[in-house]
């Protein structure tokens, strides 16, 4: 090493003791061999230390595992709480194998754990029975309903959902309109608003039953309303809407503002209804219209995928066409007669 610049100088052993100039600083120096080399062990990292650590850890964990196994086996391994045998269910499903004690029958659940029967009673009970009877499809059934002057969401007396229950959705979920029940969860009401619906309070009576039917829908169901005359007026929505409380109120309020006018032509309204692809449609009319509507409906309802029920309201002059539409589209026809007098009403409970 140069005593002037501290640079280490390499040279061959035969030059040891020679006087030379430092190649770095040019200072004079005598080449002296270094014999005290540092230990190789101190320069090398301890490569065995991690391996020794892992080996030690594995040995310790193995000892702990063996200790735990011995303790649990000694204290009753294979038993549950309260020293009860723990078993597995046999393939038959009728017995369990408990420890080494053989097979024993499975005990039945305690009677008090059985689920209570669900009540199917409706929230709104009818004030009194309508006294109507169920009639086969296509048969002329007269149903008397009441009228209501003004107001909204006050349906006709009784629960029309109970009328004809054996023919419709009993136990299967669905909806009803003037006793004609339909299965599913998507429904469209097509209601006549022609000028003749103004007489005898027909339009208001039809709206009353519409309110009852809409408010009776489950909130997971969907609905749509179309009023028609020579033209048609759909409710202000892009399509079927959920039967939530706000939707029920909004579109029943809209229906309240519909007035009567014009002639009777349900073709456009029915095309609108079928385009929504519902499970069922109810078509209500108090008059006669062109039989060509039957062909239009059949062409736009291939295979009668959408069930169509028809209602002759207060007047049967359109019976032939309405009955044909129902027969060709898996539906039923019904005649609703004018009321004999005024009735009391039941206000529905609005869902929030």
What brief labels describe this structure?
352 residues; 7-stranded mixed β-sheet; alpha/beta; 7 helices; single chain; rod-shaped; disordered C terminus; Rossmann fold; 3-stranded antiparallel β-sheet
Describe the structure.
With 352 residues, the chain is α/β, with parallel strands linked by helices. Among the domains are: 1-32, no CATH class; 160-336, von Willebrand factor, type A domain (Rossmann fold, 3-Layer(aba) Sandwich). The chain contains 7 helices and 14 strands. Helix 3 (202-216) packs antiparallel against helix 4 (245-256) and helix 6 runs parallel beside helix 7 (319-328). The radius of gyration is 45 Å and the shape is rod-shaped. The termini are far apart.
Average pLDDT works out at 74
The biggest beta sheet reads: 7 strands, mixed
Element pattern in H and E: EEHHEEEEEEHEEEHHEHEHE
CATH architecture of the domain at 160-336: 3-Layer(aba) Sandwich
Quick summary of this structure?
This protein has 352 residues and is α/β, with parallel strands linked by helices.
SSE arrangement:
Elements: E1 19-21, E2 28-30, H1 40-43, H2 48-76, E3 87-89, E4 95-98, E5 103-105, E6 174-177, E7 180-183, E8 186-192, H3 202-216, E9 222-228, E10 232-234, E11 241-242, H4 245-256, H5 267-275, E12 280-285, H6 292-299, E13 307-313, H7 319-328, E14 333-336
Parallel strand pairs: 8-9, 8-12, 12-13, 13-14
Antiparallel strand pairs: 1-2, 3-4, 4-5, 6-7, 9-10, 9-11
Helix pairs in contact: 3-4, 6-7
